[in-house]
Design brief:
Number of helices: 18
Oligomer: single chain
Radius of gyration: 22 Å
Helix content: 40-55%
Largest sheet: none
Number of strands: 0
């Protein structure tokens, strides 16, 4: 059964049109036969920005565990989930995989802790948000192509000779945009800290969003978003069990469950404790749900089966619910919206809460995050007040060309955001003597 709201977009955007495959700067393919989205995927996969995620925190900081899951491994896991789910629903699989690979490419050192600290440091120049930084990297900071020097000033972005980043297609950039609005522009919550574009990146944002419905994510972006939730909720719990931080038996304690469901509210606002309890009990009733973990070969195999079963459960539920609403045939761009049953979203929210409560909220992690916030804050202060030569050449040039203090501070924020955890600590140690 179709949804009338999407009929006009289904006619125009299914299959992918020339408009969707347009690049900011036209360029021929070096090897004919590849699709535009295969080229996009290759560009993201080979980018320095994606490689950097190997040294960036997911849950536990890199090199602090013998079972490391970094932002890079998470992005690869998200990409595998998204590719298969998208293909099952008729999306171009390379397009969805590109969006999944790129979705965290703007996350700074120390994960969300670094993101929060940089947002405070960047308050006077528009703040910081990892998703907005991802767009900035893809369209500006990762040097791959440059706009022609004689570009017409009347064009959407009058930046002749400027880097246009990876020069991805319009559809790929749109699919990687989780929050298609500027700061304060959340469609239902103006106080939300989530946004997808900085003020000085609005020209390219308007270009990639040409002809799209206001504030709505394209279908591929909704697939990417759910794949992200599925990948990190399941694998973060796997990590916590492996490290011994999560005891499955504790999840049957009424006291522990009450505290757990308070955490889960941030992922499913408005849900009642009884709904979270029912979601957890559905998971605990499955034969593959862990009763413990002893580190044995069978125990490790059980962990892998747990993640496999959860990913299959969450993706199949979304696929079936989406097909029930929109019927058969390919679903792309603005022809549909991914449908995830409420019960499945609550199960995912409970898993996220398990990882937060038993892994991220441990005392040692809280102390580590406090130190990381200090490192980011002091780096921003020292670099903004110091010699621009301390910046990498690309950001030193950006700093020198800044029209005002806000632009200069943005260059400093861009520099810090491109560091790994280790390089942020090393630079901080050097600048503090």
């Amino acid at each position: 059964m179709s949804d009338d709201r999407y009929d006009e977009y289904a006619k125009d955007e299914q299959p992918y049109t020339e408009h969707a495959q347009t690049r900011w700067v036209p360029e021929p393919d070096k090897r004919p036969g590849r699709t535009a989205f295969q080229r996009d995927r290759a560009r993201v996969l080979h980018s320095a920005a994606l490689r950097r995620l190997a040294g960036t925190t997911q849950v536990v900081a890199p090199m602090r565990s013998d079972f490391p899951r970094t932002r890079l491994t998470h992005s690869l896991e998200c990409a595998q989930v998204g590719r298969e789910l998208g293909a099952a629903l008729g999306c171009d699989p390379d397009l969805v995989e590109t969006a999944c690979l790129a979705h965290d490419i703007g996350h700074p050192p120390f994960g969300h802790t670094g993101e929060e600290a940089l947002d405070q440091a960047a308050e006077s120049c528009g703040g910081f948000e990892g998703n907005a930084q991802s767009l900035r990297i893809l369209t500006r900071l990762e040097p791959k192509r440059f706009a022609p020097l004689d570009e017409e000033p009347a064009r959407l972005a009058p930046w002749p000779g400027r880097s246009v980043g990876l020069n991805l297609t319009r559809a790929a950039l749109d699919a990687a945009t989780k929050y298609p609005w500027a700061r304060g522009g959340h469609p239902s919550d103006p106080r939300s800290a989530k946004f997808g574009v900085y003020g000085d990146d609005l020209p390219v944002f308007r270009w990639l969003r040409q002809g799209t419905p206001l504030d709505r994510k394209c279908f591929e972006a909704t697939v990417m978003d759910w794949s992200d939730d599925v990948a990190y909720s399941t694998h973060d719990v796997e990590d916590g069990l492996y490290a011994g931080h999560i005891d499955p038996a504790a999840l049957r304690s009424p006291t522990e469950r009450a505290e757990l469901f308070k955490v889960a509210e941030r992922y499913a606002p408005g849900a009642e404790p009884e709904e979270f309890a029912a979601a957890l009990e559905r998971l605990q009733a499955q034969e593959w749900w862990p009763r413990g973990y002893d580190g044995s070969p069978r125990g490790r195999a059980g962990l892998k089966d747990l993640t496999s079963q959860l990913i299959g459960r969450f993706c199949l539920a979304a696929e079936q619910a989406t097909r029930a609403r929109y019927g058969p045939g390919p679903l792309t761009r603005y022809a549909a919206e991914l449908v995830v049953p409420t019960g499945v979203r609550l199960e995912c929210a409970v898993l996220k809460a398990v990882a937060v409560r038993y892994v991220m909220q441990r005392d040692e992690q809280a102390q580590l995050r406090a130190r990381q916030r200090i490192v980011i804050a002091e780096l921003a202060e020292l670099l903004a007040a110091g010699d621009p030569a301390e910046l990498d050449p690309v950001f030193a040039a950006q700093y020198a060309e800044a029209a005002d203090d806000g632009g200069a501070l943005r260059a400093v924020i861009d520099q810090i955001a491109t560091l790994t955890d280790a390089s942020a600590l090393a630079l901080h140690a050097r600048l503090t003597g």
